[in-house]
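Appendix B. One record, verbatim.
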Amino acid sequence: MSGREPELLGQTVVVIGGSAGIGLETARRARAEGAEVILTGRTPDRLEAAARELGAQRTAAFDAADPEALAQFFASLPDQIDHVMATAGGPYYAPLAEFDVEGAKRALDTHEWLAVRIAQHAIGRVRPGGTLLFIGGTGGRRPGVGLSAIGAATAAMPALIANLALEIAPIRVNLIAPGFVDTPLSASLLGDGLDARREELRSTLPIGRVVGPEDVAALAVHLMTNTALTGATYDIDGGQQLLAR
């Protein structure tokens, strides 16, 4: 990064779900660009380890799907912050015969409704021109067995983000939609099939490699720094959508 001024110098970035995977990598890149970072997560030990590595300004351990805990967290923040990224939660997959409505509701709580709550809390605390960033996905865009919940959520999220961008302007709101990303979450979902999936993607993706959390982090920081971008969804899947199933 020599030869230029860091792009986030003097700014504060909050990463909700910042102790691992995409959130941690985004916090790491934001720090390299001069930002102060505030990290949250549900696992205190992992969160503190991430904070020590990055020299985080502070941490808060809580479940982002808990509205009261989220409200208390935002109330405790400095009067003005610059960017908030939320990576909390994971997808819900289940065929209809095994579909758990409560499980699907929990997934919505950590995606759609979390985005709404964060947008509400951002007013008056995130500076004008600052950013809210959310993580969606591309995997639910094609219908399939077991994809009812994630398909509905995938379709809804871009519309929600576009509307929030108008409602809380001039704070900017954007959605990052990855395909497969090589993270601990992917490992937990795929289990013994992880290595086979990696190899399949290396041999079929147009980019010839697997997308990593550092790729998503680079996009996230770009969305923080490019002040012309709001209300949009940005796919990052290495060309995965271009392939026939």
